Amino acid sequence: MAKKQKEQPQTITIDDKIYKVDDLTPEQINFVNNVADLDRKISSSKFNLDQLNVGRNAFMNMLTGSLETPEAFGAILTGSAFGLNK
């Protein structure tokens, strides 16, 4: 018969100190949950910001390209550069 392994208590590390979740008050658990949620939102915002910056750079490149060669930019906008206007 297999021996039951003793479950390890759930812990959280804050400022290099380990705390047992069971020892936290409901208010402290709420704080932990809010910090975790905000960390996820910050990460998501950074991801979105990266996408926005890439999009902005692409449009800026198209703008500067159009200022150098207006005909090429017109072809891109109409799709003729890709053979779409046949």
Describe what this molecule looks like in 3D.
The chain is mainly alpha-helical and 86 residues long. The protein has a domain at 31-81. The chain has helices at residues 26-68, 70-78, and strands at residues 11-14, 17-20. The protein has a two-stranded antiparallel ribbon. A hairpin with a 2-residue loop joins strand 1 (11-14) and strand 2 (17-20). Helix 1 (26-68) crosses helix 2 (70-78). The mean pLDDT is 87.
Summarize the structure.
The chain has 86 residues and is mainly α.
Task: Give the key terms.
86 residues, mainly alpha, two-stranded antiparallel ribbon, 2 helices, 60% helix, 9% strand
User: Number of DSSP strands?
Assistant: 2
Poorly predicted runs: none
Strand order of the largest sheet: 1-2
Largest sheet: 2 strands, antiparallel
Helical residue percent band: 55-70%
Percentage beta strand = 5-15%
Q: Compute the average pLDDT.
A: 87
- SSE pattern: EEHH
Number of helices: 2
Give the topology.
Blueprint: E1 11-14, E2 17-20, H1 26-68, H2 70-78
Antiparallel strand pairs: 1-2
Helix pairs in contact: 1-2
